[in-house]
Amino acid sequence: MSLEHTYGHALDEPLGGQGSARDYFELLKPRVMSLVVFTAIVGLFAAPGHIHPWFGFMTILCIAVGAGASGALNMWYDADIDAVMKRTANRPIPSGAILPGEALGFGVVLALASVVMLALAVNWQAAAMLAFTIFFYVVIYTMGLKRRTPQNIVIGGAAGAFPPVIAWTAVTGTVDLGALSLFLLIFMWTPPHFWALALFREGDYAKAGIPMLPNVAGRAETRKQILLYALVSVAAAALPALTGVAGALYAAGAAVMTAAFVKQAVDVYRLGDGEGGDKAAKRLFGFSILWLFSMFALILAEKLLGLAAFSAVL
User: Fold this and answer.
1) I need a labelling partner for 52 at 20 to 30 A (CA). Which of 63, 99, 185, 304 fits?
2) What is the average pLDDT across 85-91?
3) What average pLDDT does the segment 105-121 reach?
């Protein structure tokens, strides 16, 4: 009797991905999750009111788990295109470390757990917003927009902009202009950040059939749109100060960083195609991460300094 008959399956049929803990951790998109967690922490501190440290910890934990669930479900659905892109070919599913069904189950369990935990531990408003964020990223962006429209990043960027709003809602139970100002910082940052990446990864996206802006509208139009969004980011950067979320320290730092951000976008637009233009796009991509981190770090620094001063008075 053959081994195939003994065990009821062909020898080359996968028994499981045999993925390690590290492979499952990679499914969570840890680099993306780190930015999600940081902006959520800032939203927690920036929100008016008070939240018990335990509930604050549970809020950040649930947001992190929900973000990881979104990453796992995104990798499950996009495994086919990840396999043909150089940047993503070594992800756990294309590499064979984890099977698609395992990633799907892992993501669904984490998504449900994060929403239920947040509803039970904190409040249902924040939990509902977390559920909508996961749905938006997985269904609307990943399944609906990513492969169909060059505006995928513009609309889909909303998913990445919700974490500080979820944290704000955990504290206040509502969404107001202050929360919206944090949302717009990320929302307006997303297109120039990813379009800069698309300029020097154009071939990768073309091979995968993803209609990123350079592949559909051309590189010149992409550079123009990057510059336009960078200019709009000037207004977005001012909103936290105008809505009272941040003060003078933030305003000064944001002015310097946003001026540098716009300068980088101008360089991308001015230098055009060729080696100089590609280098400018890579610089903008890297600097854009620093810009967003700096905006939120300045807000957090002000809040922590304010708490320290308050404690000293007491």
Assistant:
1) 185
2) 89
3) 97
